[in-house]
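Page 42, continued from yesterday. The earlier attempt failed because a stray header line got pasted into the input along with the sequence. Redoing it now with the clean sequence only.
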Amino acid sequence: MVTGETGAGKEVIAKYIHENSNRSEQPLIVQNCAAIPEQLLESELFGHKKGAFTDAREDRAGRFEHAQNGTLFLDEIGNLSLPLQAKLLTALQSREIVRVGTNKPIKVDIRLICATNMPLHQMARENGFRQDLLYRINTVELILPPLRERMEDIPLLAEHFLKKHGRENQ
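This time it went through. Structure tokens are written below.
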């Protein structure tokens, strides 16, 4: 779990972990949990069966399946509702997901990296985040200080972006 303020570079850390792991040849799938409505997020994560809801015109794999043998990065995990947290916990414990609209379990093998700018430990104490899910996802916690506290990183970041955008824009 990577924690830190918005803009601190949590996704950069997740990509670095993935790229320097034994799963680096497999996909890194990113899902921002705050970016889409709750009703769609379950389908985005777990997939759905044709006809499961009004716009489900075909069977569709979710982010878990797309990340098979790779890494699933869930950004802003603190925004998940309690029911979706329960479903995520079940998937992590059983290493199986169930698409929306079916009862058929699908085996998944992923590394999960989560990120948040929210105080999950406090939220768990106040019953706003599941304690058992926090325990499951918090095997290693990386606390990323804001850039204003990492001034030595600014020249490295400036050089990186100059190279990147210099190549892209010739």
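Notes: The CA atoms of residues 78 and 116 lie 6 Å apart.
Reminder to self: strip header lines before submitting.
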